[in-house]
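User: I'm putting together notes for a lab meeting next week and I want to include a structural view of one of the chains we've been expressing. I don't have a solved structure, so I'd like a prediction I can at least talk through. The sequence is below, exactly as it appears in our construct file.
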Amino acid sequence: MLNNREIATLVLVTIALPWVFSKESVRESFAPVVKAFLQPKILIPLVAMQAWISLELWVGTQLAFWNPALAKDTILWTLGSSGVLLYNSTRIDSDGGYLLFFRRTVLATLCVAAFVEFFANMYVMSLAAELSFQIVGGVLIMMVTVADNNPEYKSVKVFCERVLALIGLAFIAMAARQIYLDWQQLDVLELLLDFALPVWLTVGLVPFLYFFSIYVVYDAAFGRIRWVATGIRARWRSQLTLLSVLHFRARTVQKFTNYPYFARKLGESRTFSAARGVVAEFLGHLESTKRAKLAEEEKLRRYIGSQEVDNEGKRLDQREFKETIDALRRLETCQSIWYRNAGRSRRDLLKVLDDDITGYGLPRKSGIKLSVSRDGQSWYAWRRTVTGWCFAIGAAAPPPDEWLYDGLEPPKGFPTEDSSWGNEPFTMDRVNRNWW
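Assistant: Thanks for the context. Below is the predicted structure for the 436-residue chain, given as structure tokens.
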């Protein structure tokens, strides 16, 4: 049976849905979403997951971990958490690998936050109070979301987060008080079963998520092969070869998908022996790439703090050089796109990007400085690496104009105005030799 908190949520959702679907844009986008969910690639895994969860519940019943009183919480977990877990399992490779994903998934069900959430939900208030708190909480969460995307509203975000924290503490305090008052009437065994439910359901779902993630990466790899292979026999030969060599090495299969050259070569193989040779060549390429990366990391460690240069005049201590160059290139691309649309460079581009260039290996606050001329026709950005060496990129004319610089100190002005940039764009000389 639903409690007042769940009834309040259901009431608010029921009220919100007609308003949401009154918007034509929402109605137009809803049908494609439903159609996408009915596609076999999505529907079959969902049905398979429900069958797996049913098997979990049968085992749980046999072990006395589950009873009909837990049906409501089971349905809520199945509709919510299991779907999130299924979606996240498709991004395992980008999140640090399988062991990290599964360890994080299991520990998330045992963390302090999960216990606090369970504790706070043990007791609920009247329906009117629950409705009021959920409306206020929903508004505050929306305000935090908006403020999070607009740095100028940081103070609003901090205030809303503190109010939300106070509301959470109020729920915890109320639950603690009720537990104290009702301690003699509490069914401890039922509470333990209730708390353990999402834990063992999640742990039990891990094997399914593992095999599903393998299915996803192989499906992507087979799709690449089907695109290039000619004839059914060639496709089957290529797919069976890949499966027989790589087995359950899903991260390696994921990497294979990112190499069209090897997929094309595998699809063109005429014998199993030739196909196995292609996969072996691919594995050799991965190994050589890994060795080169390790050698580069060793080189970075060896020359930490060094002021030496090589025969070409490039510095040997290159920590953060590549990351800084990639981040500045990204900034240049965004600035060029903006210029082509607006006819000028954008002064607040770093704020728009939220200075978030962590995808290039830099800290959350990258330290990049951006300057744009009054008329928006010139700009430059620079960053000082951990070695103390500076890199800068800029333009003094419409795209694709590009000026590059690296040195002990950053430029003091725009390209063509400061001689440290050199004499002309698109050059490789002493002012930017560490860019290459």
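A couple of points you could mention at the meeting. Residues 3 and 378 are 62 Å apart (CA to CA). The chain is about 60% helix and 5% strand.

User: Perfect, that's what I needed.
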